[in-house]
Amino acid sequence: IGEYVVIGLGRFGWAVATTLARQDQSVLAVDTDPAKVQAISVEVAAAVTCDTTDEAAIGELHLERATCVVVAIGVEHKDASILTTALLRQAGVPRIIGRATNDLHGRVLLAVGAHEIVNPEKEMGDRIARRLARPSLIEQIPLGDGADLAELEAPEAFVGRTLVELDVRRRFDASVVAIRRGGKVHSYVLGMGPLEAGDVLVVIGAPAALSRLAALA
Amino acid sequence: IGEYVVIGLGRFGWAVATTLARQDQSVLAVDTDPAKVQAISVEVAAAVTCDTTDEAAIGELHLERATCVVVAIGVEHKDASILTTALLRQAGVPRIIGRATNDLHGRVLLAVGAHEIVNPEKEMGDRIARRLARPSLIEQIPLGDGADLAELEAPEAFVGRTLVELDVRRRFDASVVAIRRGGKVHSYVLGMGPLEAGDVLVVIGAPAALSRLAALA
Ligand SMILES: Nc1ncnc2c1ncn2[C@@H]1O[C@H](COP(=O)(O)OP(=O)(O)OP(=O)(O)O)[C@@H](O)[C@H]1O
Ligand SMILES: Nc1ncnc2c1ncn2[C@@H]1O[C@H](COP(=O)(O)OP(=O)(O)OP(=O)(O)O)[C@@H](O)[C@H]1O
Fold this sequence. Notes:
The structure is a homodimer of 217-residue chains. With 217 residues, chain A is an alpha/beta fold. Chain A has two domains: 3-123, Rossmann fold (3-Layer(aba) Sandwich); 135-216, Alpha-Beta Plaits (2-Layer Sandwich), CATH 3.30.70. Chain A has nine helices and eleven strands. The first copy, chain A, has helices at 11-22, 34-40, 55-59, 78-90, 103-112, 120-133, 163-166, 168-172, 207-216; strands at 3-7, 26-31, 46-49, 68-71, 96-99, 116-118, 137-144, 147-153, 174-181, 184-186, 200-205. In chain A, strand 4, helix 4 and strand 5 (96-99) form a beta-alpha-beta unit. The interface between A and B is large, with 59 and 59 residues.
């Protein structure tokens, strides 16, 4: 069980704190607004009203004992997010995740001591756009090392043929590692018969290879 | 090539519009703020200053020709996002994605005609929390039909042993479909020798099965 602190209970911070708590993590939720602190207190291990730009006040929370502190203060209080981050680094918090509202803010947060930054609006905008731009690709995530994993509907030209026949690996430089059909995920793909309409192929390959496959759909 | 319209060039809308444009989609970006419209105009096919709550003004944009309209207006202008969505539905736009700032706002957007809603702060907060709660799980995405795909570092107990020996499928009810090692993604896992320290296993299974595996790490 990890010890997490979430500072700033706007929409992003609230979601971080409550989801961590649902994952059985110990969460201390902090905000200057007593109404928010009160509202979240039933869902987390502890909730405290505190102005985290006040060095004495933040000192009393003993945040250096935390596994990780998320500074979720938002665009309305950028200065507070920067100052809070600096104080946390000074206190020796081992992992600080700062929420950035734009690239410059992100660079400043890293400069004053955040170990990682996240920009929820920018990252979700990017994700939504990718999802829209490739409708036959149901989901696409980077695995690392230049390969993505993607889910795409079996192209019409593949229906009725087996994976062995189709020789996807050689023709497209992508590997079908699983097939979703009728509510089940099958990962022994080589033993399967011909592909059926509606089959969802789970594929690994470089983004360009996956695009070529998706373009057939 | 799709025809997309993004209304509202805050951080979320800006990211949607520019990422779609980088994916070679045709994008019309719309905002009441001429400075934002001017700034984005180099990055998208077209950018127009318009108050989308004005029925006549929105009519001149002929948005019914779009594949999809994203209403990215934010928390500062909830009424405008609701009114805009209603007007788009009235105009017969085939797919409207509404950005919701909380659950009630989301329900209202669906009621007035959005086909889908997205809440960037809430969804990213949820994602960040899950990533934090499972540090040995590098990434986890739902594939559908009750199975997730996850990437996790090979547990110490697995190092030096082959997948056949480890019999992961029978012991954990999860399938290792690929291994990331030394900058390459290997998807012929059965042919591989013993697992090495630092190997990243790409695994498919139910969330509970993946948690059991991750707990070994
Ligand atoms: N010095 C501070 N100490 C603790 N909490 C703070 C401080 N300053 C601001 N906050 C809290 O941070 C929270 C989020 O900040 P803000 O309202 O700026 O973000 P937002 O952009 O609206 O957030 P979101 O997009 O996540 O909804 C608020 O609840 C606010 O009370
Ligand atoms: N009636 C309208 N027509 C067109 N654009 C609008 C209208 N009302 C607001 N906008 C634009 O929507 C954009 C985003 O809205 P807002 O400022 O409320 O969101 P935000 O929560 O700050 O956004 P983000 O979190 O994405 O940065 C602004 O650029 C604003 O000018």
